[in-house]
CLIPD3 protein (Anopheles arabiensis), 81 residues
Amino acid sequence: RPFAARQFTVRLGDIDLSTDGEPSAPVTYKVTEVRAHPRFSRVGFYNDIALLVLDKPVRKSKYVIPVCLPGPNLPSKERLA
């Protein structure tokens, strides 16, 4: 396993990590599972992506919205950010 889930926490809705008093009301989650890309390698930057399973459901807000992932038919040469 490349990473242990217990070493991570996720803070969502935080708009300025240097302060604690912003109006966004960030929420912190524990990571229960790390699902790394099957061909992940610590060498280089290819396949350096993972999904994090959180300890509770995430609620959307003004500052927390889902990310859009590419579909399975997207050509591998396409560049997305």
